[in-house]
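To close the section, here is one more complete example, presented without commentary so you can practise reading it yourself. The ligand is SN-glycerol-1-phosphate.
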Amino acid sequence: MLPDQFENTLDYLLLLNNTTKHATLIDPEKQTPEEAAKIIQIAIEAGTDLILIGGSTTNQNSVQETVGIIQETMELQQWAATQNGIFENQSTTVPIILFPNASATLSDKADALLFMTLLNSKSPKYLIKEQLNATKFIFENNIETISTGYLIFEPGMRVGEVGEAELIKTSDIKTTTKYSRLAKYFNFKILYLEAGSGAAKPIPKEIISTTKKEFNGLLFVGGGIKTPQQARNASIAGADWIVTGNLVESFTDYKLLKSKLKELINAIKEP
Ligand code: 1GP
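Output:
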């Protein structure tokens, strides 16, 4: 849920841009919508700034239900915070942005959509065709779109396979430079560097700093970030937003989840 003072989600992403921020990725296939809402409540308490909803193999029903229940939970939290008078000091709502795997998995309940093209896909499906198919739903539901270049590096994991990506080696500065310039010339608002969910190692800092030099929009980095040190490295190298997904799925103890997430988020935000 977009906080009241913002007119649109892109403004929120841009205005928060003085320090690196944290996004929590929820794959609707990995838990029930109710569990997802609980995890998000904890992530917000731990300091996350954004929720991304998506997964390589998710379907429309689970996306709709998950987004719906998270939004309802946030509304209730906000109402309760207002009643208790703590709303002024602590935000209880953050926007939900769709991070779609296909045109058939959209939701009208999200605040915005990463309107992505998988720049290094070999398939027209992920370069332009899914996007074309999505235009009807976006138009009819008046969804805010945020133009995003999506770039998958080795090992790429499941999303690399599904997206038929021509994976970029994490030592390949030359190709990274070319793609970063491409993203700049297309005037994308976001460039998302992806190692793949569950990657053994995150995107290295040389790749992040190369992109940061060339691309002037918001830089999202995700895939394999599990420790505060890894998150901090990405932040120092120039990531504007750090995305973690698996991390929130690896705890059944919510108290422990909150403290681990807090540690990681604090490491990103330390000056
Ligand atoms: C995947 O970048 C995200 O798109 C998050 O990856 O699940 O490894 O945190 P993890």
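Once you have examined the tokens, check your reading against these statements. The beta strands are 21-26, 50-53, 96-98, 112-118, 144-152, 190-194, 218-222, 241-244. The mean pLDDT is 93.
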